[in-house]
């Protein structure tokens, strides 16, 4: 569990710099250059991610059960994760109204993914992993939206066709992950 927690501290820590200390981040970008900062950011993120995967895998071998999720909860989880994939797609596909409405759909999608997985997993390691991502995503949306309001940030208006692209890409990506990649990468099928 210590490796999982260390990985989360590193990964979430580096992804929180812009939330908690944007001036420090900007100073580092100025000092190191854009590519230098991105390189350090990427390597640190990768180290954190590898530790999360390794630590979670080790903790899964000796699970400490807090609760047994109800049998039908996996369907609610699948729905929440499908919405999360749509939100994440909205962060990258231009011209959609979802980004204008939410402002930071990647963080909102991360929070939704965490919530869905918390409902379906009642072990200590799952609560730690998915709880951290739920809290980080929710706090990230709140902090970022507050900064947007203070700075007068307005996101471009989107279109119905932009929204349709977001939903289509999000649902296709979700289906591929849910029906193919989840079993291969995680070792279990979420809808079986």
TrEMBL record:
GO terms for cellular component: membrane. It comes from the Bacteria. Residues 3-190 form the NnrU domain. It is a multi-pass membrane protein. It is found in: Membrane. This is NnrU family protein. The keyword Transmembrane helix applies. It comes from Trinickia dabaoshanensis. Its main location: membrane. Keywords: Membrane, Transmembrane, Transmembrane helix. The chain crosses the membrane at residues 40-59, 71-93, 113-143, 164-186. InterPro entries: NnrU_dom.
């Amino acid at each position: 569990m210590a490796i999982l927690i260390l990985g989360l501290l590193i990964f979430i820590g580096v992804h929180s710099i812009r939330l908690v200390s944007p001036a420090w981040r900007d100073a580092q970008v100025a000092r190191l250059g854009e590519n230098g900062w991105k390189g350090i950011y990427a390597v640190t993120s990768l180290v954190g991610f590898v530790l999360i995967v390794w630590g979670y895998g080790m903790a899964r071998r000796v699970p400490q059960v807090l609760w047994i999720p109800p049998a039908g909860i996996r369907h609610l989880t699948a729905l929440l994760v499908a919405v999360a994939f749509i939100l994440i797609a909205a962060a990258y596909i231009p011209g959609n109204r979802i980004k204008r409405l939410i402002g930071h759909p990647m963080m909102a999608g991360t929070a939704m993914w965490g919530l869905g997985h918390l409902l379906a997993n009642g072990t200590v390691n799952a609560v730690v992993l998915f709880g951290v991502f739920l809290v980080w995503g929710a706090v990230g949306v709140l902090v970022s939206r507050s900064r947007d309001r203070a700075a007068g940030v307005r996101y471009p208006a989107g279109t119905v066709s932009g929204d349709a692209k977001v939903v289509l890409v999000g649902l296709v990506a979700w289906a591929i992950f849910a029906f193919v990649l989840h079993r291969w990468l995680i070792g279990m099928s979420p809808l079986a």
